[in-house]
Write a structure and sequence with these properties.
This protein is α/β, with parallel strands linked by helices. Helices cover 32% and strands 18% of the residues. The chain has eleven helices and 18 strands. The radius of gyration is 22 Å and the shape is globular. The N terminus is likely disordered.
């Protein structure tokens, strides 16, 4: 059974502590989803140095994606990117090669981009037929679920560096898929922990009308229940379409947002769920009541941000910018973590065998150095990355979750997202 406990340090009243302790034990149904575990393989010791130029192992990593329209952010200050994710794998390959050259491990990258209306299953089968077994998938949920059974059957390893959907970690689990993208639940819990620490426990929740918005809204409601937070108002912002920059000019937005947020019950903070980039950035400074804005706008939970400086983050940023010509974003980082996790497994096992690498990735031996102050690893039951989550504004790092007062019997990183008793997945057994 998983336990989540918040200690009495920091600005919490006795009542707040009681609430946190009251929601500490989380138990789900007894149903389990099990997948066939790859053949067991003893982990070899870390590979020994070799002569310069001698290649012992060759590892090809495939960046697998689908053509799509790039995201147009509400702010013109954010560039429209066509290479998000791709640049992260490229950086990861360069970093893998740093150690690889010394050990005789040669890393290479190939790219498969399926047309918008193309057959993604056929493209993936073709890659498998060529012997490719290691993939970084920059795909949304439906496409990921199309290729996952094929990867399961082939004994391949697929890193999900894009899809945040919670059911991929609780009900629809595949033995081939490791998640380096944070889930909606992880981000919502990271934000909720900080707001509890601040004692901003009365939320006005404003959720967009698109499926992605609703999914994050659901995660935020779950977090509120988990941490004893009161959602005093829960409203939907309907996207009625229109030209983004002509129909939503500053004058119209200035008049609209106070109306959208007026007459709400007394609240401490406005929590926005706008994954679709429709309205969120218009909320700060325009609410009916003068309140801070958090969620997908204002204070944002994320795996990575260009404002990160701690734990060598500045060095990482500069190396990436030197080659990519722009800052690293979250999609880049998630793809980079995937590439580095595989490289770390190859280094430690001295093997390019998918079953051997899978066993190491899913074990408690893995620690990926990722500029977060501690090593990253995967949860055995659902193969989700566990990592500190940054809470940032557009210009600065505000905090990092998990907050110090939230404890866990295994790892404080498991206080964010669905813990083992809450998931029906048992991909590699318990732990």
């Amino acid at each position: 059974m998983s336990a989540l406990v918040r200690l009495g340090t920091g600005p919490l009243s006795r009542g707040s502590r009681a609430i946190c302790l009251g929601v500490a034990l989380l138990v789900t149904g007894s149903g389990l989803l099990r997948a066939q575990t790859p053949p067991s393989s003893d982990t070899a010791p870390a590979a020994s140095p070799t002569k310069p130029g001698q290649v012992k192992l060759s590892i090809e990593i495939v960046y697998f994606s689908r053509e799509e329209r790039p995201v147009e952010y509400l702010s013109l200050a954010e560039p429209v990117l066509t290479d998000a994710g791709l640049r992260g794998v490229e950086q990861g390959i360069r970093d893998d090669q740093t150690t690889g050259r010394f050990l005789g491990h040669a890393y290479a990258m190939s790219t498969i981009k399926v047309p918008a209306n193309g057959d993604i299953a056929a493209a993936f089968k073709a890659a498998l037929d060529k012997g490719q077994r290691f993939f970084v998938a920059d795909l949304k949920k439906d496409d990921l679920l199309t290729i996952a059974p094929l990867a399961d059957a082939a004994g391949a390893i697929v890193f999900n560096a894009r899809a945040p959907d919670d059911d991929l970690r609780t009900d629809i689990c595949h033995i081939s898929v490791f998640h380096t993208a944070l889930s909606y639940a992880q981000k919502a819990d990271a934000l909720a922990q900080y707001l509890v620490w601040k004692r901003w426990t009365r939320w006005f929740l404003l959720v967009g009308s698109h499926p992605e918005d609703k999914a994050f809204g659901t995660a935020l409601r779950r977090s509120a229940t988990k941490f004893g937070i009161n959602i005093v108002e829960d409203r939907t912002y309907e996207d009625t379409g229109g030209a983004r920059r002509t129909d939503t000019g500053a004058v119209q937005v200035q008049r609209q947002m106070p109306i959208v947020t007026q007459n709400a019950a007394t609240h401490d903070v406005v929590v926005v769920a706008d994954e679709s980039e429709v309205f969120g950035d218009y909320v700060p400074y325009r609410t009916w009541d003068p309140r801070p804005v958090v969620g997908t706008s204002g204070l944002v939970p994320t795996a990575w941000s260009r404002v990160t400086e701690q734990w060598g983050g500045t060095q990482m940023q500069r190396r990436f910018e030197k080659t990519a010509g722009r800052p690293m974003n979250e999609r880049d980082y998630d793809a980079w973590v995937a590439t580095r996790a595989l490289g770390e497994a190859v280094t430690r096992t001295g093997s390019a065998d998918p079953a051997t690498l899978h066993a190491y990735l899913a074990s408690d031996k893995l620690e990926v150095g990722a500029f977060k102050g501690q090593g990253l690893s995967f949860r055995a039951w659902d193969q989700q990355i566990r990592e500190p989550i940054l809470l940032v504004t557009s210009r600065t790092l505000v905090s990092v979750s998990p907050q110090d007062e939230f404890l866990h019997q295994r790892s404080t990183l498991d206080t964010m997202g669905f813990d083992e008793p809450e998931s029906r997945c048992r991909l590699n057994g318990p732990g």
